[in-house]
Amino acid sequence: MILTDPQQYQQYVTFDMDGQYIAHYKGLTLRSVFQPIFSRTQRMVGVEALVRIHTHYHTQIRPDIFFHSDQYGLIDKLNVEYLSRILHLRNFSISCFRHLKLFLNVLPLSGNAVNQSISDSLLSHRLDELGLSHDQVVMELVELASDDDVQLQRATRQLSTHGHGIAIDDFGCQASNQARVDLLCPDIIKFDRHLLAEYMQGNTALLLNAMNVARQANAMTVVEGIETESQLRAMQALDIDMFQGYYLGMPEAIVPIDGSASIKMAIGQ
Description:
With 269 residues, this protein is an alpha/beta fold. The chain has 10 helices and 11 strands. Helix 6 links the parallel strand 7 and strand 8.
């Protein structure tokens, strides 16, 4: 059963001793971490919410492995995604970064499921309840293929109508390609880290072609995977709008507003 009612997911969500919302679902513990995104002027403009998944044995499961795994069914993957989104929104709302953009990953595994889980009034209700504006939230479509592009297009258009930004994540990887850009007309395109790696090795065509796709779509751009100063300087020399990567800031839990610490950033402290 897909979780769509607040009374259903409430039983899975708790508030832990560290002042963070977490969730327990079928032997898994879900936690939020956030990675900063910077503008060309080195100003933090947003954070990407990422889920950390642990088993009862404290073994961590990488999200990409979990969502690609045949061990878990579609319904469980969608419920983990949905619960993760609830955690991210709640944790973001109590952080000192709540005035920035929040990037949330979305699974396009099934057009109907996507339409049901992200395009109804629940998201709007949750944002209103937390005092967040709709235009703060950017929904990132991850690189997995959809089995119903018509429904996927309908769902993302509805999200846009509600004021949310639409981003295509990991462009240049799997289904994050020009066809999806043409289908969804995103506001933002995030370039997969392998495009950066190829560019640094002298194969500049892949990244430059991706930038051209974004330009034709009138979409803003984010380069992901920046891990060194030389990579940062090379990307700053290009016409790219935003930057993200371990060199700039690691994914970390956001400390609540009344906490004594905050995310440590390499830039924009």
